[in-house]
Amino acid sequence: MKVISIPIVGWCNGIQQIFIKLKQIIKENPNTNFYCFKELVHNKSSNDLLKKYNIKIIKNLNGIKDKNNSLLLLQAHGSTKELINELEKKHIKYIDFTCKFIKANESKINSKLTQGYKTYFIGSNDHQETKAFLSNNKKTKLIELNSKQKVKLTGNKNFITNQTTLTQEEVNKTLNKIPKDSYQFISGCCPEIIKRQSNVIKSLNKIDMLIVVGDKNSNNSNELVNIAKKNNKKSYLIQSAKQLEKINFKNVKTIGVCTGASTPKFLYEEIYSKLICIA
Q1: Burial (CB count <10 Å: 0-12, 13-18, 19+), residue 156
Q2: The pTM is what?
Q3: Confidence band of 149 (pLDDT split at 50, 70, 90)
Q4: In the beta sheet, which residues pair with residue 74?
């Protein structure tokens, strides 16, 4: 059995930069208590790394004991306006780690609003990015991903963008339900996620099975699995090397291995090495 690596593996550049910046901030503030609100990214292994730096993950703001000597880390997928208001009201210091591509999408929306456009956002309403995006952009309306309802836009001065972690195929399916002459569209898909998806698609004719190393809560990791399944390839999402024991490799000649954007490289290397041993 052959095992091939499908690039790009490990963290996306944005998450790499978060951890580089985080190490520097901790070094410069040795006596500060660090907290993270709920989770930094959608990956348990990456979030567990925070413990290495003595960063405590909290589910609500009551977990912060000493506000004057504390710093709160906010999620890469964005934070709601309501949370930011509460932090400022309670004088809690924080660092906003919102992904630069999400911020770029907000800039597109704001630019179009100043030009008199009605703005819309294609996303999944249970995803943190969508919740935060709509909270910070009250005039923007949600176009629910995969909704069976037809979307009706009035006039022709409408602008649409989308959640960064979606596939362009998903976005296009939603756009196809809307008259093309009624809106302007600029893709909000993360360029690196698009590259990972493209690399998986290119590898499908070379592999019998795809192993995606990622978290079950990671939308972009799940989409990599779905791409393979839609092309009639066996595909599995795993978060640990132990999960390989449950996979049947009988008659499999070539396995492709890739990762979600929030998966740490050490986890990929551990699983890749285990697959080499199985092969």
Answers
A1: exposed
A2: 0.94
A3: confident
A4: 96
